[in-house]
Specification:
Distance between the termini: 65 Å
Protein name: Glycosyltransferase family 39 protein
Membrane topology: Multi-pass membrane protein
Number of domains: 2
Strand order of the largest sheet: 2-1-3-5-4
Pfam family, one: PMT_2
GO molecular function: pentosyltransferase activity
Keywords: Cell membrane, Glycosyltransferase, Membrane, Transferase, Transmembrane, Transmembrane helix
Structural class: alpha/beta
């Protein structure tokens, strides 16, 4: 222990990294359940080769942690924290191949200080395992290419496959890898190497469960992830709001200093390439190959499509290494100040819920909703419970309640992976139900006064009950409309 403390005193960078991670660990017990936590926990409780929205890696990890540490919100948060901590360690190893000791320390502080690391540490998303396997893939590919260690071609293929088993955007790993070889004067010859092709074949083989699940289910997941987005992009409607929204998201995730460094070196390399026709080579090209397709590629879509804030996260790995080559000590200090301020504000929101969140994407109120729903079931015996908001309310109630909770497939609407749980809805025929409907823009405690017309197609009678009002710190913070529905009849 004394040796560890001595190391922290000597190495300020490691001290900062340890401090940020300790801060996050201390906050873990105070974090409530997010809808994403509950939904991917549902993945783990219904093991499958893959799932409708995403591949299943995050669900598998949550299943492992909840089996070991028990079903609790803390177990789920701990899974995210531990996986992300391994991502930080993997990043440190990867960055050491490219940076001097001083620049390596700056890079690891840059990474650990970001908001996106905090988000990954607290919230279950497919990006949590994706970032880990993405980083491990780059370590293996580096070893295979620059150190000519053949076994790392195999390990790299496995890691790339596991990244795809985490999230489909991992396909950009293979794209970046091939782009690096295409533009590299020295390493283009690797296209003739059987090891390179073995690596790619292994990466595809490891993704077999995802492809097989899609084959069994009419490629539903691939269609869901591509068709709607392709249609929106093809419309080509310019939206400044989307563009500036993306900039705001990235400045939040990376913090302003790091984001501006990203923009600066991106401009520098693009200018050099387009005006001087000088394409970076060697290790710099390697880093850019796994940065440009994801960061620049998605940014180019922002004027015509709403790019989600997490889509660019994989590019941060090599992007931060590149930033470590340019950033000054002074800017590092400013980055840390920004980070401390943001994290203090974040912790105050977690602990005291100072600013109400007008959305279902919140960590408060779900357990209280489950308690109130159980009370309603006692007043209305033999009722099942369902909701209609894609997955959020249904998944959260499923986590906190013993009874099975249903989604909007009860009334014939698409319900994401709830449609693939194998439920026979006809066993609910003639039963009564409680329909829980979240009031996202909670303004008053009144009843809704109307209900979804689809309910009338499946139930004999629909009666609105008093809404459930959730108080946080003595303040009315969340509201859920409740409808008592009788005599359910599933449509064939």
């Amino acid at each position: 222990m004394n040796k560890f403390i001595s190391t922290l005193k000597k190495n300020k960078a490691i001290s900062w990294v340890f401090g940020f991670q300790l801060f996050r660990l201390i906050l873990l017990p105070f974090m409530g359940l997010m809808p994403q936590d509950a939904y991917y926990y549902l993945y783990g409780q219904n093991l499958s080769l893959s799932y409708f929205d995403h591949p299943g890696m995050i669900g598998y990890f949550l299943r492992i942690f909840t089996d070991i540490f028990g079903q609790s919100v803390f177990s789920i948060k701990l899974a995210n924290f531990v996986i992300t901590s391994f991502t930080i360690l993997s990043f440190y190893k990867l960055a050491s191949y490219f940076l001097s000791k001083q620049k390596l320390q700056r890079a690891i502080v840059l990474l650990a200080s970001t908001i996106f690391i905090s988000i990954l540490s607290f919230n279950s998303t497919p990006d949590v395992p994706l970032l880990l396997f993405w980083t491990l893939s780059l370590i293996c590919l580096y070893k295979a290419i620059f150190e000519e260690k053949k076994w790392f071609w195999i390990l790299g293929g496995i890691a790339m496959g596991l990244a795809f088993d985490s999230k489909y955007t991992a396909l950009l790993l293979q794209i970046g890898f091939i782009a690096f070889l295409l533009f590299s004067n020295k390493y283009r010859k690797l296209f003739l190497s059987p090891w390179m092709w073995i690596s790619l074949i292994i990466s595809v083989a490891v993704t077999f469960p995802v492809w097989y699940w899609n084959y069994q289910n009419e490629f539903a997941s691939f269609a869901f992830q591509s068709s709607e987005r392709t249609s929106s992009i093809s419309e080509f409607k310019i939206s400044p709001k989307n563009f500036f929204g993306a900039i705001g998201h990235q400045m939040f995730l990376l913090l302003p200093v790091l984001f501006l460094v990203f923009i600066t070196f991106t401009y520098k390399y693009i200018k050099r390439t387009l005006l001087k026709f000088k394409i970076p080579q060697g290790k710099t090209l390697f880093l850019l190959a796994f940065f440009v397709p994801t960061f620049i590629g998605f940014f180019c879509l922002t004027p015509i499509y709403w790019v989600k804030l997490n889509w660019m996260m994989p590019s941060y790995i090599t992007g931060i290494i590149l930033a470590g080559m340019f950033i000054s000590k002074k800017l590092i200090k400013i980055q840390i100040i920004f980070s401390i301020v943001f994290h203090v504000l974040f912790s105050l929101q977690i602990l005291f819920y100072l600013v109400p969140i007008k959305s279902d994407d919140t960590w408060v109120g779900w357990k209280e909703l489950a308690i109130e729903t159980k009370k309603l079931q006692e007043k209305h015996p033999n009722t099942f419970v369902f909701s209609d908001d894609n997955y959020k309310t249904s998944a959260c109630l499923n986590f906190f309640m013993d009874d099975k909770i249903y989604a909007q497939n009860i009334i014939g609407l698409p319900a994401l992976h709830f449609d693939y749980l194998g439920d026979n809805l006809s066993i609910l025929n003639n039963k009564n139900a409680l329909f829980i409907d979240s009031d996202k823009r909670f303004k008053n405690t009144n009843k809704k006064g109307k209900h979804n017309p689809l309910l009338d197609h499946y139930f004999s009678n629909v009666t609105e009950l008093e809404p459930i009002i959730i108080k946080i710190n003595g303040k009315e913070s969340r509201k859920f409309w409740v409808f008592y529905c009788t005599n359910y009849q599933a449509k064939k």
